[in-house]
Write a structure and sequence with these properties.
230 residues; elongated; 1 helix; single chain; seven-stranded parallel β-sheet
């Protein structure tokens, strides 16, 4: 835990860089995202360390957070539309209800986070890793999930309609009641996955590996999967 600060973004769980936190707060309250970018560019190879900060409800849409450590950060209700979060480390964060439409999370590591009700419509999640994430009712509609790795996740009632998860992997996860209408998970690997009562209509699973996958009560109309003719 870092020393106490008067910065409103500070919490008693904060263990990141106070310098980074102070510059972020200054940017939010006047310098804008351009000021934050200048701070980043002054430091070669810089990645922000904001572990344990409180960014709940903050509008960081379009901000540059590449490689940032956002572990244990409170991002509940935050606006992160179009935010650049490629290769970010997000562990144990509260992202309940966060708005991440079109955010770039390519190569990000997302673990043990609360993404319940979050909106990741058309987000970029290429080669991202999601582990032990709670994402009930989260929206991944039209998201790019090429080669994503999903493990141990609770994604009940999530919306993955139109998502592109080709070559991805999903293991030990629950997608009961999820909407995968029109999604493309060709050549993906699913193992120990529950899709009971899911909407799999027009979903594309051709050349995929489906091991111990349950689809009781699922809508399979027009769904293409190994062994089913087009």
């Amino acid at each position: 835990m870092s020393e106490q600060s008067n910065n409103p973004l500070w919490t008693d769980r904060f263990c990141g860089s106070l310098e980074d936190l102070d510059h972020l707060y200054a940017a939010i309250n006047g310098g804008g995202k351009e000021g934050w970018v200048r701070y980043i560019h002054e430091r070669e190879g810089f990645t922000a360390d904001l572990r344990g900060a409180c960014l709940s409800g903050r509008d960081l849409s379009g901000w540059h957070m590449e490689g940032a450590d956002l572990s244990n950060v409170n991002l509940s209700g935050a606006l992160l539309r179009g935010t650049y979060l490629a290769r970010a480390v997000i562990a144990g964060a509260n992202m309940n209800g966060a708005q991440l439409t079109t955010a770039d999370l390519e190569g990000a590591s997302i673990s043990a986070c609360d993404l319940n009700g979050a909106d990741l419509t058309r987000a970029h999640l290429r080669v991202a890793k999601m582990q032990d994430v709670k994402a009930r009712g989260a929206v991944f509609k039209g998201s790019r999930m090429y080669r994503i790795q999903i493990s141990g996740c609770d994604m009940k009632d999530a919306d993955l309609s139109g998502a592109d998860g080709r070559y991805g992997m999903c293991i030990d996860s629950d997608l009961s009641g999820a909407d995968l209408h029109g999604s493309n998970f060709a050549r993906a690997k699913f193992m120990n996955v529950t899709m009971n009562n899911a909407n799999l209509s027009l979903a594309y699973f051709c050349d995929s590996s489906l091991l111990s996958v349950t689809t009781d009560g699922a809508d399979m109309k027009g769904c293409l999967y190994p062994g089913r003719k087009k």
